[in-house]
Amino acid sequence: MLTRRSFLKTAAPAGAPLIVPASVLGRNGAAAPSDRITLGGIGIGPRGANVLNDFLEQPDLRFLAVCDVRNERREAIKSLADNRYGNRDCAAYSDMFELLARPDIDAVLIATGDRWHALASIFALKAGKDVYCEKPCSLTIAESRALADTARRYRRVFQAGTQRRNIGNFVLAVELARSGKLGRLKTLHANTLDPRTTHDWLPPEPAPPQQLVDWDRWLGPCPWRPYNSAYVAGRWRGFWDLHGGGILEWGVHTVDLCQWANDADRTAPVEYSPQGNHILCRYANGVNLLMRDTGWMGLGTCSVRFEGELGWIETGDTGKIEASENLRGEIVQSRQPGTRALPHVRDFLDCVRSRRQPRSHAEATARSHIACHAAYIAWQLGRTLRWDPEREEFPGDGEANRMRSRAMREPWRI
Amino acid sequence: MQNTQAAPQQPAQPAQPRLTLGQQAARGLPDPAQEKWREIWNLEPATLLVLLKDPKASLFLKAKICQRLAAIGTKEAVPVLAGLLSDPLLSHYARFALEPIPDPAADRALQDAAQKLEGPLLAGVLNSIGVRRDAAALPLLARRLDAPEPETARAAAAALGRIGGAQAAESLLAALRRRRADIRSVLHDACLVCGESLEAQPEAALALYEAVRRDQPAPVVAEVAAARIREREQREGFQPIFNGRDLEGWDGDPRLWRVQDGAIVGSTEGVALERNSFLIYRRPLADFHLKVETLLRGGNSGIQFRSEALPGWVVRGLQADMAAGNHWGSIYEEGGKRGIVAPGWRGKAETVVLPEAWNDYEVICRGELIQLKVNGLLTAELRDRTRLEGVIALQLHRGPAMEVRFRNLRVKPLR
Questions:
Q1: Are B368 and B356 in contact (CB under 8 A)?
Q2: What is the pLDDT of residue A311?
Q3: Are A65 and A102 in contact (CB under 8 A)?
Q4: Distance (Å, rounded) from C-alpha A273 to C-alpha A279?
Q5: Reported ipTM
Q6: At which of B236, B258, B293 does a domain end?
Q7: What is the pLDDT of residues B105-124, one digit of tens each?
Q8: Is B12 inside any structural domain?
Q9: What CATH number corresponds to the domain at position B108?
Q10: A343 touching B, CB under 8 A?
Q11: Is this prediction's pTM over 0.80?
């Protein structure tokens, strides 16, 4: 029998549109088993479970396996899937390579801590899987570049978990900017958080047995540090080794939307000036990008504001939109929460079928992450940096260039 | 990495509602009471090196000094860091500092360590050599491809792929030929990466991709390699001469030839042939490069070129020969008196042909020079002026029932 999977892998050159007719969906919208997209999950914690539930709502999807270095989470996600399907079929692994080696899995959801995002995505892409990866997708510029290059090289579908590219109010704001309704763009504003991180270690605690928590695997490519239960309980943010700080935390959403609004998905700002916790950036086309953690209109977390010569628009995670008087007629209040992943998940699955690239594809994601990394490096160095988006280097700035990558702990590499 | 003197870290903006301590803890933001690392970040490089050499220094202190040196270390730091590469707890921290130090002393330190270390620490050092794209380490990496420890060999392969260039490509090709199972998938990836560095040497890139495709890689790798080959061949001017759907442009006995799964299938099952029968591509070609993939199940077949088509699907002229367990890679004269004109089996094609599997066959005719390649290996070379233009045709041999398949037939006109 020619299954959808084998058909896609043999007959369809990646990149060529392939329309799966609606008739493959049977009665009640249920897909024939052979036509379901099969999914595995890697490192599914609270946010991951949220996104996974959106996947599980899709009639043409089957979740087959979970991988986690923590026994507790492994079992929780297995139960979630097994309860949903009324069986005990969900496989549970502690080694992601066992999951990735399964030829019956089409795609993976990666929702580990940030330190593993790029590497796990790269392994999955190399194993031929399409990837939906939570954000931020990298801890360094080098990781972002390698991730985008691998997705291109292996012709896989990649979607970053920057779901606001599929949320009504944000899409409307971006479309107003791109269509010229704001006039020539002047300044784009991206809501970021306190950039601070620490290099300290938490006090050592005895590490639990490997089958409960595989601490070495949890750390993965990051520098070794003594075990402390707070890290694995999810309180790893703010540690420089494990987290990109507040600019990455929200910037990969909000800077990403500004990049999209400025039609800059394949470039990045060329200058970054830290001013306290604000980073003022400038694109080659003269548009400014201001990353800031204060002064917002209160429209919710992850706000963005686009200002042009003819008007402005601001919106955030409440879904509410404010705009200049002349644009009021264009505004449709959608009131979808900005954290909702469902439409973004659907976009991804449609692209797994069509072999097109989804809204938050690998290259656009790399560029907006790189803009955030560059801003964070400028903030750490406390001085203005110039950036060459073609060569992806800080021209003539050795110290900043050295901060584009971090050596990975053996045996990991990108 | 924070330069507290130069950077005003507190917002210059008016006071804003800060996160409560509880919210900070939930986000794991730094506890300002700790911040032990800040002292280290404010020290001069020379002081850092003194502390790093101090046997009484704590693991934390040494680790943080290495991380600080990643941004500001110079060649003076290299010997101290090199001394830590063999320390299981600090080897990675030493590489953390060494990897970004621009001075070539860091390359030499990593090369030295690569001669001495083993196990995971060696793999880490090889990874760092790859990140630095140290071309001087190419011979060392090529030797490490044969390391018995799989992780060492894999790290060497990945580093060669990253460094790229023709020399790295040669080492990777040689490793592919040794067909070592435990490094294959990394080797395939390294070849795909390396190929991207060979834009200026399309032949070398093509050789890599073809070697990967022939190594029976994972489906995704096969897809990528095939796509790369297609792109390059199209750029070079190769055109398909079989459309994958029907025999348009070809002429043969309809009882013998059909199209199935994108391939031309010739079979003598149920048909007793009185003489050899051919499927003929009617457009005559003079100087050209022909590439096909072919799968032979028993019997004898071949690819005619510069040949003369006679009535009744009979052909005479030169043939790229193949037979079960013989004749592959040889030039044979069909319907003539010379028999095998240039042998290519013994010691040549026999070393590369996969029996009962898809094999690559190439015919290159340029003036009087004729060359055959099987799976990329040159097996026969002949200078012959008998006939400088003619048809291409695929053979079914009389005798016991046999089947042969051809797919992906493409031709590039030469000159």
A1: no
A2: 97
A3: yes
A4: 5
A5: 0.91
A6: B236
A7: 999 999 999 999 999 999 99
A8: no
A9: 1.25.10.10
A10: no
A11: yes
